[in-house]
Specification:
The chain has 32 helices and 19 strands. The radius of gyration is 29 Å and the shape is flat. With 815 residues, it is of the alpha+beta class. The longest helix has 20 residues. The strands form 4 sheets. Strands 6, 7, 8, 9, 10, 11 and 12 form a 7-stranded mixed β-sheet that branches. A 5-stranded antiparallel β-sheet has the order 1-2-3-4-5, sandwiched between helices. The structure holds adenosine-5'-diphosphate and magnesium ion (MG). The site of adenosine-5'-diphosphate (ADP) has 20 residues, from strand 13 and strand 15.
Length: 815
């Protein structure tokens, strides 16, 4: 809990440092030099200090990166560990390390684990790209070699760094000389306003911490990023709250549109937490004026009120404890419909044209104390549970992991100011008399909130699982079977992407940007996800442990069309909610799975939730279980014809998935299930995307299995999954089949496999594999995706070839 307070002393010591003190006296030096001279000299000094960090090449493709490295190799004499860093060409919030070692070029995805925190593969999570690279300079830590020299270009982006080099702007701000600061920011030699100092802060952070109001105002007006994080994960607002500079808070919010909900990625603390921890009453008051939640919750659930008590700030405790918002403009009568249900709510909103931000509140069927917020966004209806609980002897209301509120009205008012996890702010309600009521008065403010929201296309990127050296991000909290959405927190989301000032919009990706995957929801028309009451499921013994959770056998009791009770055997995939990075994506994916019906794919039945924070995915029970186990256990019983038949069936199922525009991403023998010797079915389609685990390249799964061995090179290199990459995986699956369940590439590590493939090598023909079947595999493993056969061709191959007569007969029965 003390982590927020580490930099005070360090700051003072740098300030007092002899060399810095001499340099820092901007005012004095201006008596002998012109500002322009000083700025030019400063620029050279910074450049010199930063010359070891000029490894960043911006957004270039992998091929360009290799060309650059090749050229550089000529100059440095094939130096092992030559590298550069570039922006990932398929995701604007991640980077790639391109590295040369022993004749091979590697491209490692640098994942943004949380705002400004990065990791490669299973390596440590490190704050700042600069410190990440520094780390790999010192140790190889899983890379083929440690980093040595780089191809020179520019320094990594300011907002992705831990620290930088103190410049003249930092110094002028620290000397609190606003007129000079003004001149500096107007000069064409001005250093970047958001550059970080030696001690990891921007000029704005310093101005805020020391309360230099005029300087803060100037930098904010000149493009300072109000939501930038310093090396302790604090924004300018956090700094004000830490330094007790209440006066600047309103500048940041009014002029810079600073986000009062922005959390410190290291702890989840909002600025209010910071103020409460320090006992800074003025800051608390002003934050309350700006609708900052009085009971915000940090990663560990701690609220500012808890902090004021723990640190004995009685006056602050009283302020927060007794706080009643004075300007509540919205009341139950405007939006509360106690009698209606989910369908009724949907109907009312449809009647009112599904206008953006239109909402109502109804009672929850599940729990009489709970309410449901039903909200329109982009012509769709979303439901959010408003729960209640006892917190410090009072009842509080909250949505998901959002702030606690003493009144339902307060919750509604809060979300009319801040989307903070909802898809949009609450704008307009419909009352029981069916009249529309305008809730938001300040439309400009709302537009801003929303444009902020849209500015970050990667918001729903699933976060990686927490790393050992991290403060663990809060797991998503429990939802309710009745609800189709879970709240995402805007502040966390925003913070997950490069913090950018609303004024400085992220440029759109260049036209050659590889096309992103189509969103799951757009693939098929949206249907209601089938929810199963968990009481109608009888859970039996565990039948498997998979990559994503355990699998149980069960019995599902349901009413058939005639209203008669029936029972059917089911397989139940059990996910603990905390293992799902983004429940919304998960449910979206489940909805897609539900719509896929084919004899060669496993039938999805529905989804259920338990009281125990588990999400259950219910599907048809497939008698003989996974093909991989079957191959291993019944080696002697399986003949060539079985394998051809299964291959044809898998290709047929995949053709269907392709027609439905669904990319499997995890096609492997373990994900093919056998009903009997004559029927194979594809399972787990879409699941890897829904759970998010396979989207992280160079990363072993928990089971020690490397999905990378099933990945096509473009998946590894560009994260580009497609039907053609599924074809590659199909080739690997064929290889598993014809080798009777052997592990592809033996015990080679993921990285060795990548190198092996890069060198143009491929898996050998399994001993008992017919040459024609091996030829199919080789075609699936064409480097160029376009050259690979389609599933349709593969299906015809395994069906039509005369050699496979028996298959043809069986396959005919499917048409
Ligand atoms: P993985 O694919 O990572 O091995 P899964 O979670 O998909 O793990 O499945 C684990 C095991 O559970 C499978 O190997 C299989 O034996 C069994 N299983 C999964 N789904 C079904 C199902 N629908 N019917 C019968 N058994 C299943
Ligand atoms: Mg599976």
């Amino acid at each position: 809990m003390m982590e927020n307070d580490t930099d005070d002393d360090q700051f003072d010591s740098i300030y007092a440092n002899e060399e810095t003190t001499e340099l820092i006296n901007v005012k004095e030096r201006l008596q002998s030099y012109s500002l322009e001279e000083l700025l030019k000299e400063d620029r050279e000094k910074v450049k010199e200090k930063e010359k070891e960090k000029q490894y960043y090449h911006g957004r270039i493709t992998r091929d360009v990166a290799e060309d650059i490295l090749k050229k550089e190799l000529g100059k440095v004499g094939n130096k092992d560990g030559l590298f550069l860093v570039r922006e990932s060409s398929f995701s604007c919030s991640s980077f790639v390390l391109s590295l040369y070692s022993k004749g091979v070029f590697y491209h490692f995805q640098i994942n943004m684990v949380k705002p400004c925190h990065f990791s490669i593969d299973e390596g440590p999570t490190i704050h700042g790209l600069d410190r990440l690279i520094q780390n790999y300079h010192e140790h190889a830590q899983g890379l083929p070699t440690h980093l040595t020299v780089f191809s020179k270009c520019k320094t990594p982006p300011d907002d992705q760094r831990h620290s930088g080099a103190t410049n003249l702007l930092h110094r002028a701000v620290l000397e609190n000389i606003p007129d000079i600061v003004e001149k500096i920011v107007k000069s064409k030699f001005c250093p970047p306003v958001n550059a970080k100092s030696d001690w990891g802060t921007t000029a704005l952070h310093d101005a805020c911490y020391y309360g230099f109001e005029d300087c803060a105002d100037i930098v904010v007006r000149n493009g300072a990023d109000v939501n930038a994080l310093d090396k302790d994960g604090q924004t300018a607002l956090h700094k004000c709250c830490k330094g007790n500079k209440a006066g600047i808070i309103s500048i940041l919010i009014n002029e810079g549109q600073a986000d009062v909900n922005m959390r410190n990625p290291k702890s989840g603390w909002t600025p209010m937490h910071q103020a409460a921890y320090k006992g800074h009453l003025e800051c608390i008051k002003i934050l309350l004026d700006f609708h900052s939640p009085y009971f915000a919750r940090a990663d560990d659930g701690v609220t500012p009120l808890d902090l004021t008590e723990n640190y004995e700030h009685k006056h602050c405790f009283d302020e927060l404890d007794k706080f009643e918002p004075s300007n509540i403009v919205t009341h139950k009568k405007d939006w509360f419909h106690p009698e209606i249900d989910r369908v009724g709510a949907q109907k009312i909103l449809e009647l009112k044209g599904l206008r953006e931000g239109l909402f109502l509140v109804r009672s929850s069927k599940k729990n009489p104390d709970w309410q449901v917020l039903t909200l329109c966004h982009e012509q769709k209806v979303f439901n959010y549970q408003i729960k209640t609980k006892h917190y410090r002897d009072r009842l509080v209301y909250y949505i998901d992991d959002g702030p606690y509120y003493k009144q339902l009205d307060h919750v509604i008012q809060y979300y009319s100011y801040h989307a903070n996890g909802l898809p949009c702010v609450l704008r307009l309600s419909v009352n029981p008399a069916m009249e529309l009521i305008q809730i938001s008065k300040d439309d400009e403010y709302f537009n801003l909130q929303e444009s902020n929201h849209q500015q970050f296309p990667m918001l729903s990127t699933p976060a990686l699982p927490p790393r050992p050296d991290d403060m663990t991000p809060r797991p998503p909290s429990a939802g309710d079977a009745e609800y189709s959405q879970s709240v995402k927190r805007t502040s966390q989301q925003q913070a997950r992407t490069p913090p950018t000032s609303p004024k400085l919009k992220t440029p759109p990706p260049p036209p050659n940007h590889p096309p992103p995957q189509p969103p799951a929801a757009s693939r098929l028309s949206v249907v209601e996800l089938k929810r199963i009451d968990f009481k109608s499921l009888k859970r039996g013994k565990e039948i498997g442990q998979g990559e994503f959770g355990s699998v149980e056998k069960g019995v599902y009791t349901y009413k058939n069309d005639k209203g008669k009770k029936e029972k059917t055997e089911v397989a139940i995939k059990v996910f603990h909610k905390t293992s799902i990075n983004n429940q919304e994506d998960f449910l979206k994916e489940a909805r897609t799975m539900q719509q896929l019906k084919h004899e060669c794919i496993v039938n999805f039945i529905g989804i259920s939730e338990t009281d125990n924070h588990e999400l259950l995915l219910v599907e048809e029970f497939i008698e003989k279980g996974s093909m991989l186990d079957y191959l291993l256990d019944h080696h002697d019983k399986i003949n060539k014809d079985n394998l051809y038949l299964w291959a044809a069936q898998i290709a047929l199922g995949m053709t269907y998935l392709e027609q439905q525009k669904m990319v499997h991403r995890d096609l492997a023998a373990r994900n093919i299930l056998l009903q009997n010797e004559k029927r194979a079915k594809i399972s787990d389609f879409g699941l890897s995307r829904a759970v998010g685990s396979n989207s992280d390249y160079y990363k072993a799964t928990t089971g020690g299995r490397w999905p990378i061995k099933w990945y096509a090179p473009e998946c590894v290199n560009y994260g580009h999954f497609s039907h053609a990459s599924d074809v590659w995986s199909f080739g690997i699956t064929l290889w598993e089949m014809f080798s009777f369940g052997e592990s592809p590439y033996g015990d080679m590590k993921g990285i060795e496999v990548i190198q092996f493939i890069e060198e143009g090598k491929r898996l050998d023909k399994p001993e008992k594999c017919p040459v024609v079947a091996y030829q199919q595999m080789l075609q699936c493993w064409e480097k160029e995706p376009k050259k690979r056969p389609s599933f349709k061709m593969l299906n015809s191959h395994f069906t039509e070839e005369s050699e496979y007569a028996c298959v043809r007969d069986i396959m005919k029965s499917y048409r």
